[in-house]
């Protein structure tokens, strides 16, 4: 089912065509919820933009578009406002009937805009032999939420955890393992011991730089297939992936593939040679590079790329991240033929991905491939830092992600024990896990991902305000009311009959849920969905306290209001699931 915004946008586009203004703009300005409900439910700025483009009076254009609008059962009235805006007031009966359809078929709450398309999403990507810390939190949680949004809107998704399992850090770890390993400590806590060894290597190498040469030699042996080094590397990787999986399980994260950097090692030399042969790359001072002269940079998308260089093979023959990323893209193109590839990393990698994307486009053109398929997207986010400065695993200055989750669950359990002592031990433990982990996920997702975030225990684990616990409680309140209704023999209606102002406000808010899903996905900003859910919860709780449901009087009104409650429960549940938060029917 198309969203309300899509319906109104199409009406305006058709009217503009009839008014003689078709093809003036490349895109139709989408209708958006009105900022002030006194003037309407939705507003379209398309006529205003048409007027500006035509260099004529935008209000006159808006009047012409309004006059050309086709009648639609969903539109009660349309007014021209200000310099040329169209304000739409929706029909109450249409609102109620549309919401009733969604109650009967909850799948209609999300528009299937991606049906038949494939996306590969590259997120999380921790380094082997290091524990996941809060620095991995944003990529993992934001990436997984985008993963869920793509799947919900009909895309075929390949979630690929491109773990860091290759490079000089493993030579360092092999040296440290042979010099300072505590075998008992490794058996008791494998990643803890590997981290200790890595930190010690960093400290010792500052005093003895010769250790770095030794580490480079061990790395070369590993990459040449030395059996002993390979066995150690495989051991490091196995214990790491086992611990990663335990964290992912708690965060409700699933991957379709875990293809680390090592999976592409044998493709790197051929990738470099192909780029040389096709003239995409060139030799420069003994290295192989892709250059981006200012006069060859394509448009605003690659702003900042001019006169930079992507090194894909160093003088000593070593390959770099860009080489691996290009080889990985080629593998993904051949294997899944994706329409889109999305990378979820922090802000520091913006230039790197602009270079990789631009190099890929040249490589595609040189082979006669479509440079726009797959579409390449870098969804970047701001840094999460400790109050005293950035985290560093080399310095041992990190907060483990598992410790954050444990602390969140501990705090949630204290509240559950206080407020719900009548529940069983097992149920209180399950609720505390869901609330605590949900609080961590939501604390990140509810903020603009492109903002820097300073790590703050109390703010991250707050259990009130715009938080996961508040949304979970709202959903539980919906389910409790519906359960009481069933116990009294009351039935959920097939449509919503709008009467009270709060009924209308809640119904409109619920109808906007699919639009919030689409916007969150289109802009890579899950916080837009969080905002929608929080505002919906606020309106529902006002409705709950101010509008009687089970004691509404006649059976038809009870059934109608129960349909509204059912729709609210569906939206809260569906929204929380898209955010990766386990839904509870009671708290």
Question: Which secondary structure elements does this structure contain, and how are they paired or packed?
Answer:
Elements: H1 4-18, E1 32-33, E2 42-44, H2 46-54, H3 58-68, E3 75-81, E4 85-90, H4 92-104, E5 118-122, H5 137-152, E6 156-160, H6 168-180, H7 183-188, H8 190-207, H9 210-223, H10 227-251, H11 268-277, E7 282-284, E8 287-292, E9 308-313, H12 321-336, E10 340-346, H13 350-366, E11 375-381, E12 384-385, H14 401-419, H15 425-445, E13 453-454, H16 457-460, H17 468-487, H18 501-511, H19 513-523, H20 527-546, H21 555-578
Parallel strand pairs: 5-6, 5-10, 10-11, 12-13
Antiparallel strand pairs: 1-2, 2-4, 3-4, 7-8, 8-9
Major sheet size, sense and barrel closure? 4 strands, antiparallel
Helical amount: 40-55%
Under CATH, the topology of the largest domain can be stated as Isoleucyl-tRNA Synthetase, Domain 1
Structural class call reads alpha/beta
Number of strands: 13
Radius of gyration: 28 Å
The fourth-level CATH homologous superfamily of the largest domain is Isoleucyl-tRNA Synthetase, Domain 1
Q: What is the strand arrangement across the widest sheet?
A: 1-2-4-3
The fraction of residues in strands falls at 5-15%
What is the residue-mean pLDDT, rounded to a whole number? 93
Q: Treating each run of at least 4 consecutive H or I residues as one helix, how many helices?
A: 21
CATH architecture assignment name of the largest domain? Orthogonal Bundle
Distance between the termini: 33 Å
